Fold this sequence. Notes:
Layout: E1 13-22, E2 26-35, E3 40-49, E4 56-61, H1 79-86, E5 90-94, H2 122-126, H3 132-150, E6 157-162, H4 166-175, E7 182-185, H5 212-218, E8 224-227, H6 235-243
Parallel strand pairs: 4-5, 4-6, 6-7, 7-8
Antiparallel strand pairs: 1-2, 2-3, 3-5
Amino acid sequence: MLIGRNLEEVGQLKWTAKYDRKLDGYSEAIGMLRNVTHREELPLVLLQPEHWKGDTVIWLEGSGKACLYADSPDGRPKPEVCRLLDQGLAVIGVDLIYQGEFLAYGVAMEKTRSVDNRFAAPAYTFGYNSSVFAQRVHDILTVVKFVQTRDDKAAKLLVMGLNGAGPLVAAAVPQARGAINGAVIATSGFRFGQLLDVHDANFLPGGAKYGDLPGMIALAGPTRIIQIDATEKAPASALQELLR
Length: 244
């Protein structure tokens, strides 16, 4: 109930590739994934190796789909992503709500919007609207369903949650009802109970009430989750551990 949607409630999807090209050993498709049922849309990039084995990685970071490229001067994906393509895995990047293409002039959102009311009471906003955190989890579930339905060859699905996206992935895994086979998350010690502003992008009404983030992670079974600290284990090595 905290998130307000699970995988079965995602609804009907429509994928439209606006830009598609073949590169050295892989294809790159950039387009719009529309959730027709809920009237939502997500800018998405799909990188697929020429000899795709059926496994897919959804790579999520706070910067959106741009994280797959890391400002590469030649326009190629960053080395960690290229290694996954070389292994025969498809990689997806996406702009969740208020990331990437959703931002005016690329300026990150500092505070979430509030319903105009003279009492400045959070209940007027969150009593009627999903928080940004919950909306971003909805977006992740939309991408999970897209992976499930886009090709009969689709097999193992792994999700990376780094640089601000770790808590989102931790919340999405239980809602995916086993559709995610494994996840690597960097939470950086995040706890809902430590937030001091109800208009923080990570605010979730009731998020701290039922075991906070560790409580969500405990609900992930049978999906395996590897929690990492970037100073101890590189994300790529943790992902390879899941693949093994």
